[in-house]
Give the backbone structure.
Amino acid sequence: MNKKVILTESQYKIIKQFLLESSFDVLARKEILKGDIVTINTNGQKINFKVIQNDNGQIYMDVNDTDSEYFERRIFVDPNSFDKGSLVAKLATDAQKNEKPMKINTWSKFVFKNVDQIDVSRGGKFIDGTNFDPNEELFKERKEDFLKTLSSLDKGDVLVLTTGKLNLELIFGYRIRDAIRFGLSDSMKEKIGNNNLVSVVINTDEKEINVDDKGNILITAVESENIDGDINRKENKLNVKKWTITAEEEEDKKEEEEEEFDSETFIKMLTGDTQLRMAYYKQPTKWQSFWAALKGEKPKTTGFEAIQDILSTYTNRKVSEKLGQSFLKNGSISFEPVDNISILYTESGKNEYFDLNRGTIYRDEYSVRRVGVDGESGDDTEGEFQYNLRLVNKKIDFEIIVKDNTNEPNVFICDVRKLYKEKSKNKWVTKRSQPEKDVKIRFLDSSGYKSEKVDKK
């Protein structure tokens, strides 16, 4: 990423002068022709000149304003005449003007001060000019750099925005149409003195991002705070002086482990899986510790971890038998919905929608990880227990339940659920939206899925 430069007011003026000088050089050499009208804006006053001759930037022109005391007086300028905001010219007397050849070395020096615009017109039509607009010219590239930075953000990136004396460290979350949702680390919350701040959403619409006359990026950010279970949102304008991208710091991160079994799932498994039920009743004492832990009681024996491992191995085998060997433990998943997916859920009393679009490829930036199985019983209590694979995206808070194969390679029957928080008995619990229907999802080659190769005929 290119380094960004912050300009002081004096530096800004120097660059402004430099750009105007460069523009005048081009005008003098390539644009201005005999008969053109050149308009110079000096000290807020416009003076019009008619070009008499231009020899590779060596320009002679007469004052063309009939009400001016200098009407028809002749000046001489060249490509180097613009200097530090002033246009330095040579001014001829009437006698000198009519000399042949004209001897400009005898003409007097005349300075147009505080020149901020020079325009050229031909036949009453504007041709070109050196109008200097800092928002459109000087800082256009700066705005483009900021937009490129936003578009390049990926998982694990931290966007550091310098606003005033504060470096605001925002952890990239996910994109929402013309916006990006960022999270904040606990240390960042402490630094800004707001532990209730849960997210910051930055509007990435190009029309909503501006640059002031000092080169600062002006953006709109919506901050969300969790106040006693209620999400309060407020809009702020941020004045960004500079920005960088860093990697998210590793804070004792662990690999995802297989999900532990809860009592409800275990009961369904005992009810619907004959093989497991026979094992449970054949040697019940070995399961006492496991069953006690599932019910929230203190285990009486030391067999809890062993049985947990047995169940993990067993359920993984059942899932592989049903769905194949393509899904790889703890890998990230890339996928493409075959159907449009729109999930309605209620958060903080408001109806919201979570969308995944058909044909859009969601790559492993979404950090979808395999964390365990999701089971369901059949049509009745004696029905066969269904072993499904649960893929959870913890950053975006949704999960995919892979339920069955299809006749299409790499396409599976799934349902998608939105995860959200809800307060219950003074604590926050994770809730899942209920899927309206099963959908088809195509999984792509990634660290968490080895795709089935399709023969091309």
